[in-house]
Specification:
Oligomer: single chain
Number of helices: 8
CATH class: Alpha Beta
Largest sheet: 5 strands, antiparallel
Helix content: 40-55%
Number of strands: 5
CATH topology: Muramoyl-pentapeptide Carboxypeptidase, domain 2
Number of domains: 1
Order of helices and strands: HHHHHHEEHHEEE
Radius of gyration: 18 Å
Strand content: 5-15%
Strand order of the largest sheet: 3-4-2-1-5
Length: 218
Amino acid sequence: MDSAVGVVLLEALRSTDTPPETLEAEDFTQSLPRRLGLSGVIERQIERYTRLEEEGEGLEPSAAEDLFRLISRREDSGDVFRRAGRDLARRELRSRGIGSKALSWTGPTVLTRWLALRAAARLARRVSPVASVRTDRNPPSLVVEGCLPARACEGPDGCEVLAQGLETFLEAYSGSEAPVVHPMCESASESACVFRVASASEDRDGRGAEDGPGAPES
């Protein structure tokens, strides 16, 4: 796995555990041990992964899976993974000179969805380097076979990294929010993880349309 993904996951963990303000009555000798993201261990790992990123080295599959598994055991794991997915997408956009809402065009179109799916596919390959990744045209979807987050976690929470990443790309390229549904997940013994752009008639849970991958792009 790309070591930058590890850095962003740990930074998301740290941000989630950082209190919005210091409360005078709070006894940090009691609360800090519960805030894993603020521990010295996490800070040292961020520094280590940052060095690996600078050196162009990736994380071993076992280390990447352990990191996803560690976060997935938290009650707020979905929040951490969503934050990480959003931050990874924003990093990618900045690296290409694109602001998170820079391309405020006329809303979702075939072109903007294609651009967002291409960007999400690149992110999926960074998260799951050995996975088979493709984009589908109808319905617009990202399909990942061998999804590392799904394999590492006992449920779909880890896949929020890719779902939120795709949502962030869609918003950046179209200028409007476009929910993403995750109707198939390898953590539920499905053949692949599918991330589909929700239609106007369905919600984030995918109600209102048939699930499943569409026809591959030519």
